[in-house]
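Write out the 3D structure for:
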Amino acid sequence: MPFFIDTHCHLDAAEFDADRDAEYARAVAGGVAIQVVPAISRDNFAAVAATCERYPGCLPAWGLHPMLLHVHRPGHLADLRAQIELLRPVAVGEIGLDFFVEDPDRAAQEFFLVEQLKLARDHDLPVLLHCRRANDELLKHLRRIGVRGGIAHAFNGSRQQADAFIKLGFKLGFGGAFTWPRANNLRRLAAELPLDAIVLETDSPDIPPVWIGRGRNAPGELPRIAQVLAELRGIDLGSVAEATTRNARELFRLAGPQSA
């Protein structure tokens, strides 16, 4: 059976409260044996920790999401540092910039981003980057504050921006968005980018693939997402599984086999 790593999955979210056990079991049965669960605020550190304690295939990342500025306080950065030291994550995230939101407070977003990049650098951890309409700004900060690579989550930029992230040691996260037939730019990138620069993700319960429509996404959809990638690239599913798993293992420094 192919072995998959979902590099971005919010299994702790309330949307899974009714059937979290079943959805985790479905994912594992389909070969999604590892799921990275990023925190989005100090308030959900406990939920992420509980999820990763309950499910052996779930690994935590700790971070303060740019869309939750109304929740974050500067003091939460000290709490984040303490959480990293208490329970070492595979990455710092979900962090980043979101200039798509209405009237974004760019200065506040960049303050939290910079401070979290410094935490990642200090702890020798990769980062999970949320980015909407801010790729160039993110790249500017990454060039200034060197971190140990990471993932440009739900990447939706240009080929030039993709190459810039790759040059800085980043992988590009592809999930449900590129399965939609009208996502021409994403589908082109998924087909043409070096396979060693791609990792797979669901962002569950968000960014559903085309076969779900507006419904709830789940980590068990990852093998089918991988199949779409294989078809776009004209290769077999096993090759996609092996390459994306290897990419994620190297990024997160995870030991283990490439397939189950």
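The chain has one domain: 4-252.
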